[in-house]
Design a protein that fits this description.
With 327 residues, the protein is α/β, with parallel strands linked by helices. It has 11 helices and 14 strands. The protein has a 6-stranded mixed β-sheet, sandwiched between helices. It has a 4-stranded antiparallel β-sheet with strand order 2-1-4-5, with helices on one face.
Length: 327
């Protein structure tokens, strides 16, 4: 017998930011605020999330983790309401079994193997076949070969994947992933993105937080942009991306030959400025982030320069998001 709670009657969510027309919300926040003493983490936040993949985008410190923890029922809002599957989520153990959370904070038992950690979560969720469910979840994140090793010896990318496996083990309807791609290498990142997209296509509600715009583009159709605890923009990714690309971006580059790459990039019109730090990293400012990203790859390939990192800088994203708030 399923332990999923029966949806309760809820106020209509139509017209809420982030909810595509004609779609039914599985997550609804209405005028939610969260404060800690005099510090306001979230203010007057209202949005709806439908099945599929939605990105919660914002710079570090914007309040994304707080939002996900409130949706998971781990913390209570100071004001407003948080509904999941038509019910108030806080204090509903039965409802928690419909939610999977892979938090950003490392809350792992280092002495356990990856398999033991995932199985522990299956047991806590009262999954009938904990062993079989654990193996399926481990396979979904491509961790079969490393599942017998202690979690304490995992790389950052491996820890990210085993956390996702633990969040998936009870096959929840709602999946909350807090910066799941942080610390992953290109192969791990591609695998997780493919999994996220597949889960969304299967009809699950997947809410993924990120501060990296280029990552979001690869898996989300809808985006919620949060800046300083407030909703700055919501809706279709392409429309929001166009607004963001109107502003200059700062990109950090780490490569095998910084001087050669810088000399080639500075000659292109999309490069507003470029400088090299004492550690050899390049910091470039561009008014055409898409064109610049393609340029970096093409120039590096042409000149035999190996790229180790091409990453938007948080401060640049913060300024872009602030523009969305003021606009």
């Amino acid at each position: 017998m399923s332990s999923d709670p029966a949806p309760a009657a809820a106020a209509p969510a139509a017209g809420l930011p982030g909810l595509p027309p004609g779609e039914e919300a599985t997550i609804v926040l209405r005028r939610v605020a969260k404060w800690y003493g005099d510090v306001v983490a979230i203010s007057e936040l209202s949005f709806g999330v439908a099945p599929g993949v939605t990105a919660l985008l914002g710079p570090n410190g914007a309040g994304k983790s707080t939002v996900l923890n409130m949706i998971a029922g781990l913390i209570a809002p100071s004001a407003g309401t948080v509904d999941v599957l038509g019910q108030r989520v806080r204090g509903q153990p039965g409802l928690y079994r419909s939610i999977g959370l892979a938090g950003e904070q490392e809350q792992l038992y280092g002495s356990l193997t990856g398999r033991e950690f995932v199985r522990l979560n299956a047991i806590l969720q009262k999954v009938p076949d904990a062993e079989g469910a654990s193996e399926r979840a481990i396979a979904a994140v491509d961790m079969g070969e490393a599942a017998g090793r202690a979690v304490g010896g995992y790389s950052k990318g491996m820890r990210q994947r085993i956390k996702v496996a633990a969040a998936l083990v009870h096959e929840p309807k709602i999946l909350l992933l807090d910066e799941p791609l942080n610390g992953t290498d290109p192969v791990q990142r591609a695998s997780l993105i493919a999994l996220i997209r597949r889960l969304g296509a299967e009809g699950k509600t997947v809410l993924v937080s990120s501060h990296v715009l280029s990552e979001v583009e690869r898996f989300a159709r809808n985006v919620l942009v949060i800046v300083n605890g407030k909703l700055a923009a919501a809706g279709d990714f392409r429309a929001i991306r166009e607004r963001m690309d109107e502003r200059d971006h700062i990109v950090r580059i780490r490569c095998s030959d910084s001087r050669r790459l810088a000399a080639a990039l500075v000659a292109d019109p999309s490069t507003r400025s470029i400088r090299m730090g004492t550690d050899g990293r390049l910091t470039a400012e561009t008014d055409d982030v898409r064109g610049f990203s393609l340029l970096v790859t093409a120039v590096a390939k042409r000149d035999g320069v190996r790229l180790f990192e091409v990453q938007p800088v948080d401060e640049s994203l913060a300024s872009v998001f602030s523009y969305l708030v003021s606009g």
